[in-house]
Amino acid sequence: MPYDVIVVGAGVSGLAAAGALRAAGLDAVCLEARDRIGGRLLSTPDHALDLGATWFWDGEERVRAVVERGGVEVFGQHLAGDTLLQEASGVRRLSGNLVDVPSYRFAAGARAVADVLAAGVDVRLGTPVSAVLPGGGGGLLVRTPAGELRAGHVVLAVPPAPAVERIDFGGVLPAGLVRLARATPVWMGGVAKVVVRYPAAFWRAEGLAGAAVSRTGPLQEVHDMSGPGGSPAALFGFAHARAVRPGFVESVTAQLVRLFGREAARPDAVHVQDWSAERWTSPPGVHGLCDYSLFGDPLYRQPALDGRLHWASTETAADHAGHIEGALSAGERAARAILSVVSGIAR
Questions:
Q1: CA-based nearest residue to 160, from 179, 144, 142, 143
Q2: How many CB atoms lie under 10 A from the CB of residue 106?
Q3: Which fold has domain 77-103+190-277?
Q4: Phi, psi torsion values for 152, nearest 5 degrees
Q5: Can you tell me the distance from the alpha carbon of 203 to that of 174, in angstroms, rounded to the nearest whole number?
Q6: What pTM was estimated for this model as a whole?
Q7: By CB count within 10 A, which of 22, 192, 243, 269 is most buried?
Q8: Is the confidence at residue 320, as pLDDT, over 50?
Q9: Mean pLDDT throughout 281-306?
Q10: Which spans in 156-243 are helix H?
């Protein structure tokens, strides 16, 4: 029996879309290639530290609503202290935190947001989609390793570039849409996020915010990622994914020692998440996708394949693209578009 809707991807946008559709009474299933939900919401095994999305900000009311619905504990990003600037000539201390702005984090890691969104959603893990094709009778055929499924509508809740790289659309997508999808950057796609955990947030005792900017690398910027009250204690930074090679962890540790002193030489753990190496997030050549003006392009708000194929990922959002808020917005938009057709009610 065909589904009303098949959602491809169980990240934020996919879970939001599937949840809204099921709440409206539609038979929707969410197919996820990975063995976990959350997409680019990824926390360390103890769920304390985030390897993907980290923050949300005032005014992002969709995130706030999910947090309140699920009783997710949040806390403010640590801001107090001075900034460090690393240049070829050495390290300078600058007064005040010149890097971070007021924002919020999730006490149990951003994965908690995905858990709230997944409640009541039919998610099938380990189910990559290899083809979405016109299926005859006005529906769409979705091909997976476990077999073929049919649906009236399909939501692509994955970044556009890997979608057109890894899914066969039978050559029927408009050429302009395919060119757009191939050129659209993947949020975090060319980035390695490095989280370094310590026994204590020693930098705070020195009047430092844990914030740094580097012109020499490998980390280009650094932030305090400690939990509420400074526990667990951690710093994190972003590096270009191309910098991840043998000896990378040692280079990061040496950089943190130059910035924060000898105590930085003894981390409890170092986590490196290279998002460019995630095949279900980034396509080959992701480093060359740099035109962020393509985020939220109007073409992504126009369903394809006779109005049955809908785009939903943070890259396609008309507002807050690249944020968790944008992913929620895109998922809600896709669900509304389907509901306006299926039920004749715009929601």
A1: 179
A2: 26
A3: Polyamine Oxidase; Chain A, domain 2 (3.90.660)
A4: -75, -35
A5: 54
A6: 0.95
A7: 192
A8: yes
A9: 95
A10: 160-166, 175-183, 202-205
